[in-house]
Amino acid sequence: MIAIRYVAGYAATGTAVLALTLAGCGGGGGGSSGGSKSGTSPSQSSGGTTQSGTTGSATSMLTTAKVAKLGTVVTDDKGYVLYRFDADSANPTKVTCYDTCATVWPAATAHGGVTTKGIDKNLVSTVKRADGSTQVTLAGWPLYRYAKDDEPKEAYGQGVDGTWFAVTPGGAKITTPASTSPTPATTSTGGGGGY
What we know:
The chain is of the alpha+beta class. The protein has helices at 2-25, 100-104, and strands at 48-49, 55-58, 61-67, 71-75, 83-85, 89-90, 93-94, 107-109, 115-116, 124-128, 134-138, 141-142, 164-166.
C-alpha cells in the first residue's frame, strides 16, 4: 500500500512539472509583428546545439536594430531579435526556461566574451544554466531567441503568452509598439484592439 502511494506521488509530481513547463513557456506564435508563422517547427531554428545537448543560439556580440512596430531592440550578431521571459528574474539572475521551453526559446549562449555595439557593456554579463552552458544576460535578464524567427529583425515572439518580450538596449521589455508617425493616430470605428 505504501509503494502505491509513492508511485502515485511521483506520477502527480511529474504531471505538475510538465504542466508548469508547458504553461510557463508558451509555444504559440503571434505577437505584434504580424501574427504566427505557420509551417516552422522549433527544430528549424538556426540556433545550434550546445556541447551539453541543449538547444541554444551562440552569439559573440549584442547589437541593436530597428524593428517595425517595436523600435530599437537588442539583436544577436546575426541580427536575430533577443527576448526576455517574465518567469525569469534579474536580481538575482534566474533562468527558468529549460527542456521543451528551451527548444522553442533557445538561450542566447556565449562560448567566450561578448562584445557590444550600441549597448552599455556594463549591462552585459552571463549566467551558468543548469545544463552547464553559459547564457548571455542584459541588465540581469537572461536572453533568448525565438525558434519561429527565421529571418533577422523578425519579432514573432513579441508578446507570446503575455510573458515573452523583445528587449531594449537598457534591458527593459518592450510592451508597446513604437510610434510610426509623428501625428496622433485617428480613431477607428472597427472596434478592434491590438497593433
